[in-house]
Amino acid sequence: MRVSIIGAGSWGTTMASLVAENADVTLWARREELAAALRSGGNPDYLPGLELPPIDATSDLEAALSGADAILVAVPSHGFRTVLEGAASHIPASTPVLSLTKGIERGSHLRMTEVVADVLAGHDRSRVGVLSGPNLAREIVAGEPAATVIAIADPDAAGLLQTAVMTPRFRVYTNPDVVGAELAGAMKNVMAIAVGIIQGLGFGLNTVATTITRALAEITRLGIAMGGDQLTFGGLAGVGDLMATCMSELSRNHQVGHQLGQGRSLDDIVDEMRMVAEGVKTTTPVLEMAATKGIELPIASEVGRVLAGGAPEESVARLMGRGPKAEGYGLPT
Q: Which end of the chain, N or C, is less surrounded by CB atoms within 10 Å?
């Protein structure tokens, strides 16, 4: 099997190191300097200090995609469409395409698999899916046991991708619910910012647990309204990914929230970050999507206010001052 991975950030590089245990893999990097570093066994830009196996990497997109039996795309949401447009003429209509990106496209409100379908006209949509789960790159590169979900409709494509990605220390499950897995992955980044803010303000585990639990309710409500399966949100792509991203200091979204809670400005935080915190760009489209469905997202709404410069303490007060309600997950409450 030959697998091509587009995008040599921390997650694309991590996936390349996993897939290399099962298949021939080629990793596309935007810059030749990074490709050369990857061929030498390291990614100083996105995984500094970690020793990696040498990876077949190139900055030539056509060469990276040549002869691929499956294609994994690990490009941030804001550049996903542009890179895919450059790759489109080299991707056959039946080749499985798996998104590794957890975000929503601004303006269009499209999930990344929908961007794939939009750009790759005529591509078999049942062979376009998403990988999502509690997957922090540095832990997986270090060989710590973890699991994930590949959500894709076509069972043959699911089996092929599962075989390519699964290793003795990285367990892969399959799920046909692309919508639920993809929305859960995008929304948990917004919620990780919220938990980071809470911890940046100095609050303890009661507040953190409350925020995560109610965040899951918001994710589930919107996910079901958009066509997702409720069971997905209780699985690895739902609560699993939510917990890992909200609780870990390795999470870029958590880091952004933590610094916001300590009073720093978003511009200063983002300027210092080399990697993208998807939740910053995903919050607005998620709120706009919810508005079209009449779904209330109190936590996500307050994240939006803080990202726009609002005071974190005031957001906490607004959330705690909401009127009494029943505890609900699957339906708007």
A: C
Catalytic residue ranges: 188
Task: Find, among 259, 273, 235, 232, the residue nearest to 76 by Cα.
Answer: 273
Check: CB of residue 183 under 8 Å from CB of residue 222: yes
Regions of the chain where pLDDT drops below 70: 329-333
Quote the crossing angle between the two packed helices 252-261 and 298-307, to the nearest 10°: 70
| Matching residue, tokens 């209509």 | 93
Same domain, 139 and 237: no
Distance CA 138, CA 44 (A): 13
Statement to judge: residues 170 and 242 lie in one domain: no
DSSP 79-144: HHHHHHHHHGGGS-TTS-EEE----B-TTT--BHHHHHHHHSTT--GGGEEEEESS--HHHHHTT-
User: Do residues 195 and 243 make contact, with C-beta atoms less than 8 angstroms apart?
Assistant: no
SS3 281: helix
Question: Mapping DSSP to helix (H, G, I), strand (E, B) and coil, where does residue 175 land?
Answer: strand
Per-residue pLDDT of 188-213, as tens digits, reads 999 999 999 999 999 999 999 999 99
Residue 118 sits in the same domain as residue 166: yes
Domain that holds residue 294: 179-320
Q: In what order do the strands lie in the sheet with 170-175?
A: 57-58, 24-28, 2-6, 70-73, 97-99, 128-132, 146-151, 170-175
Residue 333: the pLDDT is: 46
In a domain, 325, yes or no: no
pLDDT given for residue 329 in this prediction:
62
The residue from 153, 176, 199 where one domain ends is 176
Q: Look at the block and give the residue holding tokens 């091509």.
A: 4
Structural domain ending residue among the three candidates 128, 160, 176: 176
163 and 235 housed in the same domain: no
Which of 261, 116, 277 shows the shortest CA–CA distance to 188? 277
CB atoms inside a 10 Å sphere around CB 117: 17
Count of the separate structural domains present in the chain: 2
H/E element, 302: helix 298-307
Which residue type occupies 272? E
Query: What is the rounded distance in angstroms from the CA atom of residue 162 to the CA atom of residue 85?
Result: 26
